TrEMBL record:
Protein name: Radical SAM domain-containing protein
PANTHER family: ANAEROBIC SULFATASE-MATURATING ENZYME HOMOLOG ASLB-RELATED, RADICAL SAM DOMAIN PROTEIN
Gene source species: Streptomyces sviceus (strain ATCC 29083 / DSM 924 / JCM 4929 / NBRC 13980 / NCIMB 11184 / NRRL 5439 / UC 5370)
SUPFAM superfamilies, alphabetized: Radical SAM enzymes (SSF102114)
Key word Iron present: yes
Database matches in InterPro entries: AKG_HExxH, Aldolase_TIM, rSAM, rSAM_sf, rSAM_SPASM_FxsB, Sulphatase_maturase_rSAM
């Protein structure tokens, strides 16, 4: 924490800097000097170099840091960026009251990627209890103006979140709603700083013994009912520590404190919260002019906060929720009468924290692990008819993402955690709060489920597969987020896998260190080598970037690097050459154009749910090969066919299987105990009920494809299309009747299959020539006869 200015333009009566025991601000310069900024940057850089840090987190703070002015803030950012360039990543933030934030400040912050946190205590009445100007005027309108600026499309990426101090006089739901309405990426609720010497405000006796715990639980319940739309640091920290992960705040959990505060005069101090204990409590006697951060790291005050359970009093060590509570914030334990130096006590909020933690734990125990996302009747009918619009398919995709999340949690729960896997899991958990869209993008990867299923087998290799996969997912999510940091990733078969991004050839190395360099590149340290990789660049021949094509209305990737893509029942192609990838792009563009023109009802759903095409090895006989894996939602495997029209057929055909597979994850359409086998007109062998259902549903698209081809083809092509259309519409209608007569469909299944039948029946009235109809029926009869002969 780097103090830019030691004064403030507000007079908040709960401020720990000015209104509590420590008054050292009075003797410090108002603005940090250029010399202190330069020395601070050098001290941070030498510490990062000594300990080979991947990332340094710096918060520009105060007082009110904006009072330092743009030139001083620019100098601080320049010094830090220059000192750490090529050494490690810099996560630079600023915390402000927001009252003077303007467009020019935001432009400066955008230049240096400085994330902005803003203090706001809720709606106007709540905020005005404390956060006023010296003349008593409200600061609320100015803060809302600042937040509107940060929420503008141009600056939204800078918005880090809101900080709110709890006041029991404010209704928690009203406060939460007021903050949530501003759509922050995160809210941080803070307990007001207090000690046993100066205890917090509490209601009169006879009311709740845990008012602060009650207050936060009401926030938790409102937040959960709203779908947890943003991170709430204190609540997320409780949830994380209950799962055995680390806390996101120093006020909870047993993680060691790693914070140094640099004051405007260069003094190196402990956390500002200690100012509430006694005058001089944060002091260390050190200064950047004479001392290193390594010296600060061994100061007794810092060491006391890095001992975990051993650094707590006996009451805390024996408490059942200590691993979540961690004894509370260090400053809140202070009691001048304890005879041990003041801090070997439970938190003054001990009962409140225990009530909050057990309340959240009990609520989580009662939650359904994986809520079912019900399709409404309209969406279900859309899918049953054979197509399914973009909204319906997105609902399926959201459910499949929830399934993947549950599988990932199961992998973590069932696996033995090594140090690399644990660090990666921590990164993934933090990103899930700070950049959930990046985590979702990686967890929606079609080949996550094959990996998870393999990791859950429990054999000798499963543990290594599990930890490697967690690290791969964490690294990919980090890179997609654009945030500073690094992840160590085990490699396999000479390759570093980064799901959804690509792969790096690393030779015999067993692990690689992936570090964010910028939004467009990253570095990979492999033993003594270092690669700087552009996400979309082929400049480094060791980097196999994923082939991603942005076609009009459809973004699709060719997957030729992920080892778990081998899930389609056919051999996959190895890494494509640039020329082969270009041919695929041309064919996909032409096939997509054909689908949009000739099969427009299928295009929106396909664009919403099909993100990956995995190239399969071509058949030696020239037969078309395609496949959809039941456990790889969003992907199809295809051997590149001769024409874009055939590729269009394979895409819509296989995506039918993808949609129906997701629907079967969501609801039961048939009795799974049914063991009867049924004739399938497109197979040489009888099929179980699900196989017949899948094939019938897929052939609705086949019928529509040949219907469209019949309209557009010439000569012999038109004749072939007419015969195939005539055959498949009748045989698909026959398969629908077989399904309905099976007696094994559930009530939703009957509704679904009847809707399928209506679509096919509508095609039976399309005119075809008598010759084509005859040929189609003869072909169908011959197929049925041969299938029956094989069965006998």
């Amino acid at each position: 924490m780097l103090k830019m200015h030691s004064r403030c333009d507000l007079a908040c009566d709960h401020c720990y800097v000015y209104e509590h025991a420590d008054q050292s601000w009075r003797d410090r310069p108002a603005v940090v000097s250029d010399e202190v900024l330069e020395l601070t940057a050098k001290r941070i850089a030498e510490h990062a170099r000594t300990h080979r840090l991947d990332t340094v987190h710096v918060v520009l703070h105060g007082g009110e840091p904006l009072l330092a002015g743009r030139d001083k803030l620019r100098l601080a950012a320049q010094n830090l960026s220059t000192a750490l360039s090529g050494l490690c990543a810099l996560d630079l933030r600023i915390h402000t009251n927001g009252v003077t934030l303007d467009e020019e400040f935001c432009e400066l912050f955008a230049e240096f990627d400085i994330k902005v946190g803003v203090s706001l205590d809720g709606h106007r009445a709540a905020n005005d209890l404390h956060r006023r100007y010296r003349n008593g005027r409200s600061s609320h309108p100015q803060v809302l103006r600042a937040i509107d600026l940060l929420n503008s499309p141009r600056h939204r990426h800078l918005f880090a979140g809101l900080l709110c101090t709890v006041d029991l006089r404010n209704d928690p739901v009203t406060v939460y709603d007021a903050l949530a309405e501003l759509a922050p990426p995160r809210i941080d609720f803070l307990l007001p700083h207090a000690t046993w010497d100066e205890p917090p405000l509490r209601p009169a006796s006879g009311t709740s013994a845990t008012p602060y715990g009650d207050w936060l639980l009401r926030v938790h319940d409102r937040w959960t009912a709203a779908g947890r739309p943003m991170g709430v640091r204190v609540l997320d920290s409780v949830l994380r520590t209950l799962r055995g992960a680390s806390s996101l705040t120093e006020s909870l959990g047993l993680d060691p404190v790693e914070l140094a505060v640099i004051e405007t005069d260069g003094a190196i101090e402990q956390a500002d919260s200690l100012k509430t204990a006694y005058d001089g409590a944060p002091g260390t006697g050190m200064n950047v002019t004479a001392n290193s951060l390594d010296e600060m790291a061994v100061h007794p005050g810092i060491r006391a906060r890095q001992q975990g359970l051993d650094g707590l009093c006996e009451t805390c060590r024996s408490c059942p929720v200590v691993r979540s509570c961690g004894g509370g914030l260090y400053a809140h334990r202070y009691n001048s009468a304890d005879g041990t130096g003041g801090f070997m006590n439970p938190s003054v909020y001990c009962a409140d924290l225990a009530h909050l933690i057990t309340g959240i734990r009990d609520r989580e125990d009662q939650r359904t692990p994986m809520p079912q996302l019900a399709l409404d009747d309209g969406h279900l009918d859309e899918i049953a008819a054979g197509c399914g619009g973009s909204d319906a398919v997105r609902q399926l995709a959201r459910h499949e993402l929830s399934v993947n999340r549950e599988l990932l949690a199961a992998v973590w729960r069932e696996s033995t955690h090594d140090e690399t896997g644990t660090a990666a899991w921590e990164t993934l958990a933090v990103l899930d709060t700070d950049a959930p869209e990046s985590v979702d993008a990686v967890l929606a990867h079609p080949y996550l489920r094959p990996w998870a299923q393999r990791a859950l087998r429990g054999d000798a290799k499963a543990g290594r597969i599990a930890m490697r996969g967690v690290a791969e997912l964490a690294a990919a999510a980090l890179l997609r987020s654009g945030r500073a940091g690094g992840v160590t990733v085990p490699t396999h078969a000479g390759v570093l896998r980064l799901p959804t991004l690509g792969a790096l050839v690393v030779g015999e190395a067993t692990e690689a260190r992936v570090t964010q360099a910028s939004g467009e590149s990253f570095t990979v340290r492999v033993e003594e080598r270092e690669h700087t990789v552009g996400l979309k660049s082929a400049a480094d021949p060791a980097w196999w970037a994923r082939h991603r094509f942005d076609l009009p209305g459809w973004a699709v990737a060719l997957e030729d690097t992920d080892p778990w893509r081998d899930a389609h029942g056919y051999p996959v192609r190895t890494r494509l050459s640039a020329a082969a990838a270009e041919r695929w792009q041309q064919d996909l563009a032409a096939a997509w154009q054909w689908i949009r023109r000739e099969l427009p009802a299928y295009a929106p759903g396909l664009a919403a749910g099909l993100s990956v095409v995995t190239p399969l090895r071509e058949s030696s006989t020239g037969a078309d090969i395609s496949s959809a894996a039941r456990d790889a939602f969003g992907a199809v495997g295809i051997a590149r066919p001769e024409t874009p029209q055939t590729l269009a057929c394979l895409l819509v055909h296989e995506f039918q299987h993808v949609k129906l597979g997701a629907l079967l994850d969501l609801m039961d359409l048939y009795d799974p105990t049914c063991e009867q086998l049924f004739y399938a007109p497109w197979r040489p062998d009888p099929r179980p009920l699900e196989g017949l259902l899948q094939g019938t549903y897929a052939h609705i698209a086949v019928v529509d494809y040949w219907r469209a081809r019949m309209r557009t083809a010439d000569g012999t092509g038109a004749r072939e299309a007419e015969v195939r259309f005539a055959r498949w519409r009748e045989q698909t209608a026959e398969a629908v009747d077989t399904l309905l007569a099976s007696g094994a469909l559930t009530r939703p299944g009957e509704r679904f299959v009847r809707a399928m039948g209506e679509t096919v029946t509508a095609r039976l009235s399309d005119p075809v020539s008598a010759d084509a109809l005859t040929e189609a029926r003869e072909t169908a009869a011959d197929h049925k006869q041969r299938t029956a002969a094989q069965g006998s």
